[in-house]
Structure to design on (437 residues):
């Protein structure tokens, strides 16, 4: 994490001589802290806990083995909680089996149950499911209307209290509380200058989340077991709604752009929305709702979430590879291939390195295409290589901790550099292991 950001955001006292180039996010919004537990694993959300990354499976929950395997894959990619759909009695019946399978595989990542329409029945009729889940996602907009909705909501909260579980009350643009919307639309029509329908809907989203959270507390659920979210599918709506929500309560907030979309559109839209909020100190846990490409890797949503947090300097998950974009000065693909293979190599090592080499996730590696910015950028990295551009002498200087240590040449530059990165990691981050041995 950037030390600069810490300095600039934690200044207190009477002095303040403003820093010339303040960097880092605004003060983190003060929230209650919610614990999500399974076995010996506890993931804290809110308070002073780091922003947590979560994800969601897209397997049929009835297929317990496939779901457990995907939860494991998402966990290995770094997902700190994984949500699964619980939509039918058949799915609810399999939740405990999924949990047991994960426990057998040594995966203690907390599971979150995603409920709509019939969650009150499923959680009541399948107590093993209620117990195997570490948190329940409740959408008050999908629980019926009027008294029926209130009773169903109360039933889910009662189960959460009985099983000692936290909940996320997640309202969604696509399933707004119709009673509240109608009431607010009526009130709006009485205004001398009525709001736009969009503004009323944003207000209803926020109100619905906060009022349902307050009701859950009245029903006996402690306030430190409630996380809120207001999911929308457009960036500006997301920012507007969460800025408002953040001022109306102190519950931790789950951020995500719902239906973000496929490919670069989904990544860019999610990054734009979440970065604006996180930079403003808003957000305690995130999920990136990418639509996977056919046959694509579900874990990509975890990687994107981690990269957003790491790019903002909020957390570090894996070493960063700084690579130039390439231009007419380098017509070969050698440096593109090296940048890509080093990035993949580093990420593949992380499940082991994370345990073996504490701190390695903050390492910077530079792979540059020519002499223009290559040596300079490589000196700034922990370890960097400057490849030869078109017409340059075919040599590749390597810099370690700012010093030029060797000049590589020949056909095995990529392999040699990868070996040097591995040795650097062992030397710099493996000290604790050597001492213990
Ligand atoms: S470092 Fe060299 S190859 Fe890379 S973008 Fe800059 S000028 Fe182009």
């Amino acid at each position: 994490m950037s030390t600069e950001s810490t300095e600039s955001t934690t200044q207190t006292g009477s002095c303040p001589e403003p820093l010339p180039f303040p960097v880092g996010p605004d003060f983190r919004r003060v929230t209650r802290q919610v614990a999500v537990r399974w076995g010996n694993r506890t993931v804290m959300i809110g308070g002073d806990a780091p922003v947590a990354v979560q994800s969601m499976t897209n397997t049929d929950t009835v297929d317990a083995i496939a779901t457990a395997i995907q939860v494991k894959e998402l966990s290995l990619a770094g997902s700190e909680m994984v949500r699964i759909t619980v939509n039918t009695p058949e799915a609810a019946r399999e939740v405990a089996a999924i949990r047991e399978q994960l426990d057998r595989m040594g995966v203690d990542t907390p599971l979150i149950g995603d409920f709509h329409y019939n969650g009150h029945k499923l959680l009541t009729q399948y107590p093993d499911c209620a117990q195997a889940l570490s948190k329940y996602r409740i959408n008050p907009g999908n629980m019926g209307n009027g008294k029926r909705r209130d009773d169903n909501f109360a039933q889910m909260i009662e189960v959460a209290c009985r099983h000692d579980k936290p909940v996320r009350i997640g309202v969604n643009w696509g399933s707004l509380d119709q009673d509240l919307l109608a009431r607010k639309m009526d009130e709006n029509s009485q205004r001398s200058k009525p709001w736009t329908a969009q503004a009323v809907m944003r207000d209803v989203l926020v109100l619905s989340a906060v009022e349902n959270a307050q009701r859950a507390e009245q029903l006996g659920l402690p306030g430190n077991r409630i996380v809120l979210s207001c999911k929308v599918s457009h960036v500006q709506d997301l920012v507007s709604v969460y800025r408002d929500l953040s001022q109306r309560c102190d519950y931790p907030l789950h951020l995500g752009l719902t239906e973000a979309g496929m490919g670069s559109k989904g990544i860019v839209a999610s990054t734009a929305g979440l970065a604006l909020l996180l930079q403003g100190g808003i957000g305690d846990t995130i999920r990136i709702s990418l639509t996977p490409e056919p046959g694509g890797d579900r874990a990509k949503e975890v990687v994107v979430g981690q990269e957003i947090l790491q790019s903002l300097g909020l957390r570090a998950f894996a070493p960063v590879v700084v690579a130039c974009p390439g231009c007419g000065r380098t017509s070969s693909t050698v440096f593109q291939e090296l940048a890509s293979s080093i990035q993949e190599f580093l990420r593949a090592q992380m499940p082991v390195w994370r345990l073996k080499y504490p701190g390695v996730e903050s390492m910077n590696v530079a792979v540059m295409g020519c002499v223009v910015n290559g040596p300079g950028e490589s000196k700034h990295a922990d370890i960097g290589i400057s490849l030869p551009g078109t017409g340059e002498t075919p040599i590749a200087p390597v810099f370690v901790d700012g010093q030029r240590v060797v000049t590589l040449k020949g056909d095995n530059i990529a392999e040699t550099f990868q070996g040097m990165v591995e040795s650097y990691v062992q030397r710099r981050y493996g000290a604790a292991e050597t001492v213990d041995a």
The CA atoms of residues 4 and 65 lie 46 Å apart. The pocket of iron/sulfur cluster is lined by residues 324-327, 329-330, 368-370, 372-374, 389 (CB under 6 Å).
